[in-house]
Amino acid sequence: MSPVAPTTLAELTFDDLDLPAELRAAVNDLGYTIPSAIQAAAIPALLDGSDITGIAQTGTGKTAAFGLPLLAALDPRKRAVQALVLTPTRELAIQVADAIESMAAHLDGVRVVAVYGGASYVPQLKALASGTQVVVGTPGRVIDHLERGTLKLADLRFLVLDEADELLRMGFAEDVDRILTDAPKTRQTALFSATMPPAIRAVAATHLTDPIDIAVTRQASTVENVRQTYAVLPFPKKTDALARILEVSDADATIVFTRTKDAAETVGSELVARGISAATISGDVAQRERERIVDRLRNGLLDVLVATDVAARGLDVDRIDLVVNYDAPGEPETYVHRIGRTGRAGRAGEALTFFTPREVGKLRVIEKLTRSKLEEVTLPTASDVATSRATKALAKAAARVEAGGLNRYRTAIETFLAENPLSAADLAAALAAVVAGDAGKTTAEPEHLLDPADRRVGRDSSRPDRAGRERSQRADHTTRPAADRSGRSSHPTGRRYRIAVGHRDGVRPAGIVGAITGEGGLAGKDLGRIDIFDTHSIVEINAELTPDAFSRISAARVSGRELRLRRHYEH
After folding, report:
1. Which of 68, 189, 396, 541 is most buried, most CB within 10 Å of its CB?
2. How far apart are the C-alpha atoms of 320 and 253, rounded to whole Å?
3. How far, in Å, CA of 480 to CA of 161, rounded?
4. pLDDT per residue over 215-232, tens digit each?
5. Residue 459 lies in a domain
6. Domain for residue 447, yes or no?
7. Tens digit of pLDDT for each residue in 271-296?
8. Is residue 460 in a domain?
9. Whose CA is closest to 559, among 250, 323, 342, 284?
10. What is residue 20's three-state secondary structure?
11. In this predicted model, what pLDDT tens digit does every residue of 526-566 receive, in sequence order?
């Protein structure tokens, strides 16, 4: 394999790549003008019929690099599978299928389907039976369809391995080898990988024909556009620190990584209870709900996603400006993979990692791997949070002025000022403080989260012991309103409702909170205590529900079951 450097001519455009007219029209519709490095090198090679290996990170435009030549190789009149793309995760399969479908917008009769595990066979079977030409899927489900006889590769012209290193790392080596072996030898093959270890080279040597090797970036290049920061703090103060950071951040969207699914559920539930627009995905989240959450994040209806490494594989959302490693990753390579979720395709991003005092050694290992120095940051103070809330509220107020219709409020303020010895500036400042949640001297939250002892390197004595963790897990079955954390009464203050999911369904508080707030248009602070029993749960809602909101919540699904909301009356 001879290495080829990507084209770097500044004047190169997509019109220079000899694409069919229908694909050029789709490119124009999508707003593409200048091809990325991987596109400039891979598209001409693939259009010429060559096999290629491409070293390229997610976010460099590699989907179009293989998607456009793939579509150019199809015969739209032929109702048979002519192209197959293998991906390591179902999320990536959906994303790639959607992208290829958008590129095929001007090709009459071309159909694309994503096939992956954890989803019903029925729509996949219908799509394959209808004469789909492009299949994007995970190896396990692709083999399932091959064994059922519902997927036939006799007419295959084009095969792509996307994120080949991940495919092998996740244990798909045998499945990939079987699919490549069964596919027609006359096909064209493209292999893309973030790295090119010996195992990937072996796959290329066995299954590709005289491939052209295109090297675009080195492995750690995705971190070059990311400002990497860290903070050292004891375990119990992580959630408070995270909440403060999210309050003051200007990030469009944030992904928070935890080490375990239990931690993801706990952190996500706590953020929602504090009024932050957050949701959780882990291995326990049903695929349909998972897709819905990612769509909400992508469309701007959700600002914070809490996830485990497994759940976030294949996640590609351009809005993510900030990645927070709530739990420091166990492996340095995982760190690079996590922070690659931001700073994509040349855009700037930020990554913040929490280290407990006894984890500081991991910091040095990460710095060595990434060949960069992480910057220590000071955690926001309570004053910083209050100022940020007030500033954001003032910006909304300024926008509200433009909408007009303020006469009644202006009159109310003028009347109030005439009857009370306050200046307009003092009243405005007090209103901003109320919006910011600043109650003055009665505010219980400390100004600074950390004291010097919190940074002591060694055993993190503040981390819960085993008994403490067991108590925390038992407490996870109940989520309390923000008022409880302030020391006020924890007795129910809102109406209580019964929902038809419980322990038998594997339901967790975060799932219930996410469904009710998402469907009912409520904030986390509108929910109080949640008691989970074997066959049902009781939820306290501290807000009035409109009939429409009641119906939407009742029809919402958690763990595959409808909530079937109804009032709960104590006997």
Report:
1. 68
2. 5
3. 47
4. 875 444 456 678 999 999
5. no
6. no
7. 988 888 899 987 667 777 878 888 88
8. no
9. 284
10. coil
11. 888 888 887 889 998 988 888 888 888 988 888 778 898 98
